[in-house]
Design a protein that fits this description.
Elements lengths: L8 E5 L4 H12 L3 E6 L9 H8 L3 E4 L11 E4 L8 H8 L4 E3 H9 L3 E6 L4 H14 L5 E3 L5 H4 L7 E2 L5 E5 L14 E4 L9 H14 L2 E4 L4 H4 L9 E2 L8 E9 L2 E6 L2 E5 L4 H17 L3 H8 L10 E6 L2 E6 L4 H11 L5 E7 L3 H6 L1 H11 L5 E4 L15 H10 L4 E3 L6 H4 L8 E7 L5 H11 L1
Helix pairs in contact: 5-9, 5-10, 9-10, 11-13, 13-14
Length: 457
């Protein structure tokens, strides 16, 4: 069995991805030599991720093999990297071991007391909240996340990793690629179970194994499927006082862009929106308490929580119109995002870009059902065509199919094939008490798109 201590020189193929860049930065922070390549790195073209990695002394190359040489001891590949990629072939010619991102994360997790956060929604936010609580308590936590923390981004970093030097590692455990079963955490945390990349029986099997691999397991008892995997009520949490659990959230209230609630009678306030963020904070405070940080300390820490990249990121307000950008991309997340933004304004106009033809087809009914259930009569949902990242696929579904399904349910649904047309076409639908919510994931151009919409509203 290989171990992190056996290697000094690492190379990441596909280093610009959120999961890969986090691992690269973490290893660099522990004193390793790290370099990598990505298909988005092109000569003469500025890439923000590349610039931030290089600022951390991580050398970046085009994805053409020039960065791989005999001194590299271990190659890490993302799930998107196929065996036909020339760099993989070059690594094999040089007999350099190749492992997947999830395998490296499992090796890293063995070197620390690990909190692994699982579930189909809310992982990145809960990890960020946990990190803030541990840092506030002075525990010098280590972080490996799927999204950048706003306060770390403000420091000029990507923000999704930190080698803190303490004994605890806070990380996401991903179910989408099945890698969640590779970890053996000190504390396993399960937020929820919803159909996303896999069918429910497959998800329940994965999360059951995750439970069995965890020394202590904490679940959201107010989520019916997660509740079935409870290990011990004392470790569990609930947003429903009628469901028994060791940690109970009550008295939820949202005013504008802030929420307040209590956990076991301790008052919490967050600069965030939506009941789902109360549940994320409840999960984080519960887990921190299990580790040894009291609820009052967690409440103080979360007063200063600044959020994470593209999770209800507020672009601003003009002419009475709020613009909010969000990473929501599966049915449950889209519905929760819409509900969270509804108290902000009288009318909500949501725009969504699905990603991947196969995932969109798989979740078609779920998208329609979940979104239709939360739209108010005055609200609207707009969709642009499915984002296609490349590779082999069958383009046998369109976002317009989802729009037509929603129209059949008498919802205000609109298809706008070219997303750049959206801010111009939507103008006649806006009023002076309105919130425009942008939703989508996986597309690296979405941040720039939010700026484009803001400039053209």
């Amino acid at each position: 069995m290989i171990a992190i201590k056996d290697f000094q020189n690492f190379f990441f193929i596909g280093i610009a991805g959120a999961g890969m860049s986090a691992l690269a930065q973490y290893l660099k922070g522990t004193g390793k030599n790290v370099s990598g390549s990505d298909r988005y790195f092109k000569p003469g073209i500025y890439n923000e991720t590349k610039a931030k990695l290089e600022a951390e002394d991580i050398r970046c190359f085009e994805q053409n093999g020039e960065g791989i040489h005999s001194s590299v001891q271990l190659i890490i590949v993302s799930t998107a990297i196929e065996d036909t990629v020339p760099e993989v072939q070059k690594a094999r010619q040089l007999n350099i071991p190749i492992i997947k991102r999830s395998e490296l994360l499992a090796l890293i997790s063995k070197t620390k007391k690990t909190i692994a956060v699982g579930g189909t929604s809310g992982k990145s936010t809960t990890v960020a909240m946990l990190f803030d609580i541990f840092e506030y308590a002075g525990w010098q936590p280590n972080l490996i996340s799927g999204a950048g923390l706003t306060r770390l981004i403000k420091e000029g970093k990507i923000g999704n990793a930190k080698a803190g030097g303490g004994e605890w590692l806070i990380m996401e455990a991903d179910e989408s690629d099945g890698s969640i079963v590779e970890y053996n955490p000190e504390i396993g945390l399960l937020l929820n179970i919803d159909r996303d990349h896999k069918d429910l029986p497959d998800l329940i099997r994965l999360f059951t194994q995750f439970k069995n691999n965890s020394k202590i397991f904490s679940v959201n008892k107010s989520h019916i499927l997660a509740a079935e995997l409870s290990q011990n009520n004392l470790y569990d949490f609930s947003a429903d006082k009628n469901i028994p659990a060791g940690y109970i959230a009550e008295n939820f209230e949202q005013k504008g862009f802030a929420v307040s609630f209590t956990i076991n009678k301790i008052q919490f306030s967050l600069k965030a929106i939506g009941r789902h963020n109360m549940e994320n904070a409840l999960a984080a405070a519960t887990t921190a308490s299990i580790a040894g940080i009291d609820l009052a300390t967690a409440a103080l820490a979360l007063e200063n929580y600044e959020g994470i990249y593209r999770r209800h990121q507020v672009a601003g307000q003009k002419k009475g119109i709020w613009l909010i950008d969000d990473y929501a991309h599966n049915p449950a997340k889209c519905a929760a995002s819409i509900q969270a933004c509804q108290p902000v304004a009288e009318k909500l106009i949501a725009w969504f870009q699905p990603h991947g033809y196969a995932p969109t087809k798989f979740l078609r009914t779920d998208y329609v059902t979940e979104i239709a259930a939360v739209l108010r009569p005055q609200d609207e949902i707009w969709m642009s065509e499915i984002f296609y990242a490349g590779g082999t696929t069958t383009k046998d579904i369109s976002a317009n199919d989802l729009v037509n399904d929603l129209k059949a349910l008498n919802k205000n649904a609109f298809f706008i094939e070219r997303r750049n047309d959206f801010p111009h076409e939507v103008k006649s639908h806006l009023n002076d008490n309105c919130c425009v919510l942008l939703m989508g994931a996986r597309d690296p151009g979405l941040e720039a798109y939010a700026k484009y919409v803001w400039e053209n509203l």
